[in-house]
Amino acid sequence: xxxxxxxxxxxxxxxxxxxxxxxxxxxxxxxxxxxxxxxxxxxxxxxxxxxxxxxxxxxxxxxxxxxxxxxxxxxxxxxxxxxxxxxxxxxxxxxxxxxxxxxxxxxxxxxxxxxxxxxxxxxxxxxxxxxxxxxxxxxxxxxxxxxxxxxxxxxxxxxxxxxxxxxxxxxxxxxxxxxxxxxxxxxxxxxxxxxxxxxxxxxxxxxxxxxxxxxxxxxxxxxxxxxxxxxxxxxxxxxxxxxxxxxxxxxxxxxxxxxxxxxxxxxxxxxxxxxxxxxxxxxxxxxxxxxxxxxxxxxxxxxxxxxxxxxxxxxxxxxxxxxxxxxxxxxxxxxxxxxxxxxxxxxxxxxxx
Length: 353
Prior knowledge:
Layout: H1 3-7, H2 15-27, H3 37-49, E1 59-66, H4 81-92, H5 96-104, E2 106-114, E3 125-126, H6 144-163, E4 168-174, H7 178-190, H8 194-197, H9 206-223, H10 230-237, H11 240-255, E5 259-261, H12 264-276, E6 284-286, H13 295-302, H14 318-336
Parallel strand pairs: 1-2, 1-4, 2-3, 4-5, 5-6
C-alpha cells in the first residue's frame, strides 16, 4: 500500500469502548475524575484499541537512529560519530533510556534508519534508508521518495510490534544534529521565527547557538519548503529519524496501538503526522513537555496536554518511558478498585456547574 492508502485506513476512536471505560471510572469508589489525565489516557487507549479491558503490560521504546548532514555546519558540540556509538550502546543496555526502561519494565528496540556508516550490530534492527542525510544548507536533506520510505518504515515497525503483542510504544531517537532539523521543521510547519523555536540542544554555547540558527535559516532559504506540504518539509529540512517517528504515530493510528510522544524531536514528528492526517492524533499520548523552546508550542499546536513537567530534554525516549509507571498506577486503580456498589456506598454524581 502507498502512504496515501494507509492514511485512508485511519479511523476515529471507538466511542462505545471509550464510553465503557468512562463508565468504569465513574463506578469506582473515589471522587469522580480525581485521577485527572490518567483517567483520560485510559479512556483514550480504550477507544483506540476498541476494548475497555485496558492493558499495557508489554511495552517498549522504539528508537530511530540516523545521522544528519547539517552537522558539517558546526551546529553540535559532539561529532557525528557519536550517533553510531550510542546506537550500538542501545543494544548493550548502556544508555540513559535503557536504564529507565529497565526500571519501567520496558524493552528498548533500536532501529538503524539512517546512520552514516555501515552497522553490523546484533540487536540493532537494520532499516537503513540511506547513509545519513545530506547537508540541508546546500540542498534537500533527502529525496521525497526517501522520506516516504522512512515514514513507511516507522509504520511497518509498529505493525511488527503490534503482532509481537506490545500494547504501547514510546518514541525515541538518536542522531547528532537532530534538534537542528527538528527546529527547522517546526519553524516552517508553525510559521515561527527560527530563533524562537531553536534551543541549545546538547549544550551549545552562545556562538554555537548562533551557528545553529544561521544554518537553519540558510536551509530554509535554499530549499524553500512548502508549509502546506508536510512531506516537502520533511525531505528538504527534516531527518530520517523524524520521518521514522512520524511513521510510528501514523502506524499507531492504523494498527490501533497507543504511541507516546517524547520531547522536541518526537513532537515535531507528531506534528508532521498530524498534518498528514489529523485523525492520527487519536493514537498520541503526550508524556512530558520538553525544556527546548519549541516543546510547549508543539504540544499546544497538537492539542495535547503533557502529564509530566520535569524540565527534561535528554531525548532517546526518556521522557516517554517515564510515563509508563504513571500509567501503570492509573490502570491499577482502573482494574482493581472496588465500585461504589461493592462498597455499599452511594455513587458520586456529575454536576455541570
